[in-house]
Amino acid sequence: MTPTTEKNLMLFSGRAHPQLADEVARLLGTSLVPTTHRDFANSEIYVRYQESVRGCDAFVLQSHTAPINEWIMEHLIMVDALKRASAKRITVVMPFYGYARQDKKHLGREPISARLVADLFKTAGADRLITVDLHTAQIQGFFDGPVDHLAALPVLSEYVAGRYGHEQLAVVSPDAGRIKVAEQWSSRLGGVPLAFIHKTRDMHTPGESVANRVVGAVEGRMCVLVDDMIDSAGTVCQAADALMAGGASGVLIVATHAILSGPAVDRLKNSVAQEVVVTNTLPIPDDRHFDKLTQLSIGPLISRAIREVFEDGSVTSLFDGRA
Q1: Which of 5, 227, 238, 289 has the smallest set of CB atoms within 10 Å of its CB?
Q2: How far apart are CA 226 and CA 296, in angstroms?
């Protein structure tokens, strides 16, 4: 008997974001593996693949959107099923990494939940992770294996340059901690000026902060306010107000992950920002869309990363050598 050495890419998807999974499959020129998903009466999740996965190079895509705990659990169960069915290599594709904001302890007796998520996927059987714009780059070190940390910057900056490149731009970080990202944006946009918002945060109230003042020259400029995610949108709308009060000619809000929880949509609709640009790492229900919102697809980037991993190519080439 002669053993086969032919590699076999198989793409699997959970139920969290089927539109993105379908797009990635189409771009790869393949189809999603037929999978049975169902919930028992007590909300336990059941998964079974309808084809043999033995010896395959498996890519399991799931966006950690609300209800986030349910979709993370489904993701873990899918990985476990692949491991027990003898998949050769399992790559977890999580466009949005759940619990990424809990990456360190701010107060005593707190968990580091981002590390726990990484440990859970390793225990389930994951060999590799692919994700987009982690809240902090250090999360890459939480997983015991390769992590491909993709950047949405090329996708977003190309749109901004094409639509607003004729204007006097400034890149603004919503806080001092994301200056490095703002510097990358400035470079992509031809070295435009940088500014940041000085803000204070209450450690006892998660997700809430107060924009105090603008540090940097923004007067007369279209300000590109960049962040990794928009959750309740309170902070970013306060920052937009501060920029307009500082003399900016306009504000463009740009973020990779559109969580858009609670009052976010109303806040953004009524904000001074003239446009909100996000990607489709997370699904946005039809009733959460609004006129100012522009959603760009991350599907081509993810499909290219999957192709590079499958063919043992260079994923680094997709994000200009960024670590």
Answers
A1: 5
A2: 15
Q: What's the confidence (pLDDT) of residue 151?
A: 96
Four-residue CA torsion sign, 231, 234, 235, 236: positive
Examine domains 9-151+300-316 and 153-297 and report if their fold is the same.
Answer: yes
Residue whose pair of structure tokens reads 């940390």 in the numeric block:
149
Cα–Cα distance list, 218 to 30, 183, 215, 245 (Å): 47, 15, 9, 10
Strand-pair partners of 258: 230
Instruction: Choose the catalytic residue: 105, 199, 269, 292.
Output: 199
pLDDT at 323: 42
pLDDT of residue 1: 55
Domain ranges of the chain: 9-151+300-316, 153-297
Q: What is the DSSP letter of 317?
A: G
d(CA 284, CA 281): 9
Report residue 272 as tokens. 């001074």
3-state secondary structure of 252: strand
Q: Identity (one letter) of the amino acid at 235?
A: T
CATH number of 153-297: 3.40.50.2020
Q: What's the CATH class of domain 9-151+300-316?
A: alpha beta
Active site residue 7: no
Among 256, 254, 259, residue whose Cα is nearest residue 240: 254
DSSP state of 67: S
Q: How far apart are CA 75 and CA 70, in angstroms?
A: 9
Walking along the chain (323 residues) 10 residues at a time, the average pLDDT comes out as 73 98 98 98 98 98 98 98 98 98 93 98 98 96 97 97 94 89 94 88 56 84 97 94 96 98 97 98 96 98 97 78 45
Residue among 297, 256, 312 at smallest CA distance from 132? 256
